[in-house]
Amino acid sequence: MKALVYTKPSEMIYRDEPEPTASPGEVLIRVDAVGICGSDMHAYHGRDPRRIPPLILGHELAGEILAGPGIGRRVTVNPLITCGRCEFCVQGRNNLCANRTMIGMTRAGGFAQYVTTAAASVIDLPQGMATRTAALTEPAATALHALDMATRVLARPLPECTVLVIGAGAVGLLASLLLKSYGCRHIRLAETNPIRRASAERAGGFTVHDPANTDRPAESSIDLVVDAVGAATTRQSALTVVKPGGVVMHIGLAGGASEIDMRKLTLAEISLIGSYTYSTADLRAAARALHDGAFGDLAWVEERPLAEGPRAFRDLDEGRAAAAKIILRPQ
Ligand SMILES: [Zn+2]
Ligand SMILES: [Zn+2]
């Protein structure tokens, strides 16, 4: 089969790889569409010690089951393969599974014509759902999970809240679009890349500003800040602009440890919440929401053949891709 292989930092090669076979309890999936994730970019930059080359990356996929339970079903997958038995799995919080592995990380991923995964990880697509839409389920579920957690902590209903989303990549943009569908009327989006800003403005009609400019939100003016970048500087801005009693939802993984203003956090009773991926329930809800049109017109998503994957990685790396999401087509 053809696959896009991460061979070393800054190198992706489109080449022939052995076709995988499904072991008992697994399914073989023909991959029809697979998105490039920020975490794939992290690996490409050599900054993810968990993704060791040579490796087929990619975990945001949709396709059809060719072998194993459920042959012929059109599915997306939970990239996290979880044990179903640990304390987190039994609570329904399987994103925290103590024994989790992941496709495109600990085993071959979806930048290929075929992939295998645990049969328990597949999620059926709603009837008639387009494959390109289905491939957005994973980043959409990341946004949905985070907003669900934030909503439980906010003092007032979301439509009344002022929201700032930092970062107009796929998760930031999908979070903004979902907030809009939840009835949120005051959404601001911060993005440093000018072509990404233009793309986000077209996608949702949001006020998108350059955080380097003075039109950024005033200090202590925002009820909910969603940090979809997660760098030292964005964490600091998030804490600066959040209102007393407000919520900072931290999703991005751009930078590890950094100092935060614990004095403001304490005196202003800020809730700082970390959010990681999604549960299986979130993935199902996200697929349904995408199919129902909750994320609006998805014309901002770009599609390219898998064979042009190396170029797509270079374009993303050099900030030349306007689209917040590039979907590769292996077939
Ligand atoms: Zn992803
Ligand atoms: Zn578990």
Model description:
With 331 residues, the chain is α/β, with parallel strands linked by helices. Helix content is 28%, strand content 27%. It is built from ten helices and 18 strands. The strands form four sheets. Strands 3, 5, 6, 9, 10, 17 and 18 form a seven-stranded mixed beta sheet that branches. The protein has a six-stranded parallel beta sheet with strand order 13-12-11-14-15-16, with helices on both faces. Helix 4 (137-153) packs across helix 5 (170-181) and helix 4 (137-153) packs across helix 9 (280-291). The longest helix has 17 residues, at 137-153. The N and C termini lie close together (10 Å). 48% of the residues are buried. The structure holds zinc ion (2 copies). The site of one zinc ion has 6 residues, from helix 4.
Task: Please summarize what this structure is.
With 331 residues, the protein is of the alpha/beta class. The chain contains ten helices and 18 strands. Strands 3, 5, 6, 9, 10, 17 and 18 form a seven-stranded mixed sheet that branches.
Label this structure with key terms.
single chain; 331 residues; alpha/beta; seven-stranded mixed β-sheet; six-stranded parallel β-sheet; 10 helices; globular; binds zinc ion
SSE inventory with pairings:
Layout: E1 2-8, E2 11-16, E3 26-35, H1 38-44, E4 55-56, E5 60-67, E6 74-77, E7 80-81, H2 87-90, E8 101-102, E9 114-118, E10 122-124, H3 131-134, H4 137-153, E11 162-166, H5 170-181, E12 186-190, H6 194-204, E13 207-209, E14 222-227, H7 232-241, E15 242-250, H8 262-267, E16 271-274, H9 280-291, E17 302-305, H10 309-317, E18 326-329
Parallel strand pairs: 11-12, 11-14, 12-13, 14-15, 15-16, 17-18
Antiparallel strand pairs: 1-2, 1-4, 3-5, 3-9, 3-18, 5-6, 6-10, 7-8
Helix pairs in contact: 4-5, 4-9
This protein binds zinc ion (ZN) (2 copies).
One zinc ion (ZN) is lined by residues 82-83, 85-86, 88-89, 94, 97-99.
